[in-house]
Amino acid sequence: MEGERRPAPHGGLFADGHLVLWTLCSVLLPVFITFWCSLQRSRRQLHRRDIFRKSQHGWRDTDLFSQPTYCCVCAQHILLGAFCDCCGLRVDEACLKKADKRFPCKEIMLKGDARALDAMPHHWIRGNVPLCSYCVVCRQQCGSQPKLCDYRCIWCQKTVHDECMKNSLKNEKCDFGEFRNLIIPPSYLTSINQMRKDKKTDYAVLASKLGKQWTPLIILANSRSGTNMGEGLLGEFRILLNPVQVFDVTKTPPIKALQLCTLLPYHSARVLVCGGDGTVGWVLDAVDEMKMKGQEKYIPQVAVLPLGTGNDLSNTLGWGTGYAGEIPVAQVLRNVMEADGIKLDRWKVQVTNKGYYNLRKPKEFTMNNYFSVGPDALMALNFHAHREKAPSLFSSRILNKAVYLFYGTKDCLVQECKDLNKKIELELDGERVELPNLEGIIVLNIGYWGGGCRLWEGMGDETYPLARHDDGLLEVVGVYGSFHCAQIQVKLANPFRIGQAHTVRLILKCSMMPMQVDGEPWAQGPCTVTITHKTHALMLYFSGEQTDDDISSTSDQEDIKETE
Fold first, then answer.
1. What does pLDDT average to over the chain?
2. What is the rounded distance in angstroms from the CA atom of residue 499 to the CA atom of residue 487?
3. 401 and 476 share a domain?
4. CATH number at residue 414
5. DSSP conformational letter for 531
6. 154 within a domain of the structure (yes/no)
7. Is 505 helix (H, G, I), strand (E, B) or coil?
8. How far apart are CA 140 and CA 548, in angstroms?
9. What percent of the chain is helix, strand and coil (3-state, nearest 5)?
10. pLDDT for the residue 564
11. Phi/psi at 129 (nearest 5 deg)?
């Protein structure tokens, strides 16, 4: 019949089913592939971590090598993989296990009986030699061919061509190269271990074989300081020195690391602190603990590689305002070898709160740089509070200074520290000083303040005694506000110089005021602050990093000596 309906064809349903199936495949297949790849990646990571944990090498992952690199096992060119930050081996991920078994890493101590100190052979590894290195035999450049070629000794850093390598070189003794006077040889530690078993402690006899110029260096680096360069520096120092000499203070506290000094001859050790002024203070506190334990003979001299934001102490000692990799690590070690020993005054800051019937124990701090109350302490307090909330945002030295600038500009408008002269009484060596209308007081031990400003000498024709860090005197100045601080830093104004003293006493009579000691700020209520001399620290001064201010100050000092 014409009115009868015909059944719908099955072709439309079949087409719809195909469409749904293809849609599901197009959605689920990428998801499955992604899941499978992530599973394989996690398995590889677990396998790699297992090798890292059990290995004697200091393996580190990298997504991109900084120079053309070839695997030490398969000799293929690689862009990513793993490298040992002790011996410098570089491998592809697939060859990691083979490399770990085939190639030994640096030995921090010799196995078995100690060999003679002058009989340690070279430890050669093949390929990936440093750029611009030269063969010790033919004096031609090494590593110039685009393949795995040439050899490098992981102790003395000498390089040699494949064709120049002879049996005599393989068996030749290693003299530890340019930095032999800084390296603690593995054989020395083995001999020390044997002497301790025999209950002997005359290490000087053993060290005499290494020469009178031997001043072993201990590296104490803070991997979290400043721009987070510490982790990379640790690896570079391990390659050039014995890995046992290199410590990350976030993992090994300075007081434990410095016990290595007790295995060295008296007054021979040097320490390089890689970090900000706070890290330097932490290390110097550990040195004071060594004195309390009766280990004065093992006290090291301390050099600084500045990684922090302000770095005023390192600037005072000639090590510059900040390290950003502009000079190679090898040059840093050369600077340490050339540095001269000096003394640094350290001061005790005692804060006694008013009230509470004097039942509270006074707070004590150790000051190396400066103490302040007023606008610069307020800026440090605001900066510290925000850095504690989000530390990852404050890893740039430039960004940190920008934040300081922001809070300084804010205080110019608010003036939270005004009328300081009405809230504080100041005494220098027991004599009360009348203060003008100030907003801040700064007590200086070193020449620099505020990230590179010579505060006491200032500018102009006025003559003032030069600020020294070893004369037992403190310099006390005042500032009229945050804007005045900014003018001083750009040499448009001078501070209000109050005087010099051996003892400084401040009495905060009322209200809360921001205070800081060496960049560590806090808010303080009514109290009495007393600053007295505590001790001296043995530091290393490098004269090669003098700024224009340093040169002018040195010439002024020489003129004063001539007139005397």
1. 82
2. 21
3. yes
4. 2.60.200.40
5. E
6. yes
7. strand
8. 40
9. 35, 25, 40
10. 40
11. -70, 155
pLDDT over threshold 50, residue 1: no
Backbone angles phi, psi at 126, to 5 degrees: -100, 135
Backbone angles phi, psi at 300, to 5 degrees: -90, 165
**Is residue 391 domain-shared with residue 498, that is, in the same domain?**
yes
Q: Are residues 217 and 270 in the same domain?
A: yes
Do 294 and 387 lie in a common domain? no
Say how far apart CA 187 and CA 219 lie, in whole Å: 20
**Position 464, amino acid:** Y
370 is in which domain, residue-wise?
Answer: 347-536
**Confidence check: pLDDT of 176 > 70:** yes
Bridge-partner residues for 453, per DSSP?
449
| Cα–Cα distance list, 418 to 94, 208, 354, 413 (Å) | 66, 62, 22, 11
Annotate 140-176 with DSSP letters as a single string.
PBSS-SSSS--EEETTT--EE-TTT--HHHHHSBP--
Q: Residue-wise over 157-178: b if at least 16 C-beta within 10 A, else e?
A: bbbbbeebbeeebeeeebebeb
Q: How far apart are the C-alpha atoms of 531 and 521, rounded to whole Å?
A: 16
- Contact criterion met (CB below 8 Å) for 340 and 541: yes
Task: Write down how long the chain is.
Answer: 564
Instruction: Indicate whether 180 belongs to any domain.
Output: no
| Residue 486 within any structural domain of the chain | yes
Residue-wise pLDDT tens digits, 479-517: 988 888 888 877 888 889 999 999 999 999 888 899 999
Instruction: Give residue 457's pLDDT band: very low, low, confident or very high (50, 70, 90).
Output: confident
Q: 39-88 pLDDT, tens per residue?
A: 666 666 665 566 656 678 888 888 888 888 999 999 999 988 889 989 99
Mean pLDDT of 390-407: 60
Higher pLDDT, 259 or 484: 259
Q: Which two tokens stand for residue 398?
A: 């430039």
What does DSSP assign to residue 258?
A: G
The Cα–Cα gap between 371 and 474 comes to 10
Amino acid 149: pLDDT: 92
* Residues 91 and 144 grouped into a single domain: yes
Alpha-carbon Rg for the chain in angstroms: 31
How far is Cα 160 from Cα 138, in angstroms, rounded to an integer? 8
234 and 162 part of one domain:
no
pLDDT tens per residue across span 135-175: 999 999 998 888 999 999 999 999 999 989 877 677 788 88
User: pTM here?
Assistant: 0.83
Q: What are phi and psi of 167, to 5 degrees?
A: -60, -35
Q: Is the pLDDT of residue 558 over 50?
A: no
184 versus 454: the higher-pLDDT residue is 184
Answer yes or no: are the C-beta atoms of 281 and 371 closer than 8 Å: no
Dihedral class, residue 83 (left if φ above 0, else alpha if ψ from -120 to 50, else beta): beta
The domain total for the chain is 3
Cα(237)–Cα(216) distance, integer angstroms: 13
Residues 334 and 354 in one domain: no
Structure tokens at 504: 């400084």
Tell me the longest C-alpha to C-alpha distance in the chain: 134
Per the domain annotation, does 29 fall within a domain?
no
State whether 207 and 247 are in the same domain.
yes
Q: From CA 67, how far away is CA 127, in angstroms rounded?
A: 12
